[in-house]
Amino acid sequence: METATLCELPQVFQPVTFRIKQASETWEHRDAHALRRAVFCVEQGVFVGDDRDVIDEHARLLVACTSVAGECDQVIGTVRIHEAEPGVWWGSRLAVHPSFRHVGRIGATLIRLAVCTANAQGAQTFWAQVQSQNVPLFRRLNWTPVQEDVLHGRPHTLMQADLGYYPACEQPEWGFLTHAVHQHGARP
User: Fold this and answer.
1) What whole-number percentage of the chain has pLDDT above 90?
2) The CATH number of the domain where 48 resides is what?
3) Which of 38, 70, 119, 181 has the fewest Cβ atoms within 10 Å of its own Cβ atom?
């Protein structure tokens, strides 16, 4: 007897919804740090062994997760933010898993939540040292280049966010949802 196919479904699950939020679970922190190590230590070779520093002791960690039924399932992106002095905020260690760099605007949404969260905390300025290849993304998101630098042996650009473009996000633990958008803007 031959088995009838009831419907044609893709053999590989690909999430179509992503949740970007402040990390709240132990596993989210653990997996975000593992992703940073994979990107900054293994893939890019910027750091040896681990990329953590003293900023991690007081920074807020934001994560992008695949979302199943509205719940976070797997960390696929991260960024940290911190207040260096009253009103002066910094974003750093933006990392997105290679498989998700061109799906769902993950990096852009992490940047948006970072600045919106700081804005809700009274940010007067928001800065980031951006790797040169990412400057066009930040420009599209209303950031202004200020100065070119070399950090960790790589070209970076000091950039400042236009805070007027980013409304305050009072509850970053809820964050934002974004959807997968593939080449040419088509959803799967």
Assistant:
1) 76
2) 3.40.630.30
3) 70
For residue 124, give its domain range: 17-185
Per the structure, the count of domains in the chain is: 1
Alpha-helical regions (H) of the chain: 26-36, 106-120, 135-140
Residues 6+ away with beta carbon under 8 Å from 78: 23, 32, 35, 36, 61, 62, 63, 64, 93, 94, 95, 110
Return the exposure string of 11-20: e unless at least 16 CB atoms fall within 10 Å of the residue's CB, then b.
eeeebbebbb
* pLDDT, tens digit, 9 for 90 and up, residues 134-175: 999 999 999 999 999 999 899 999 999 999 999 999 999 988
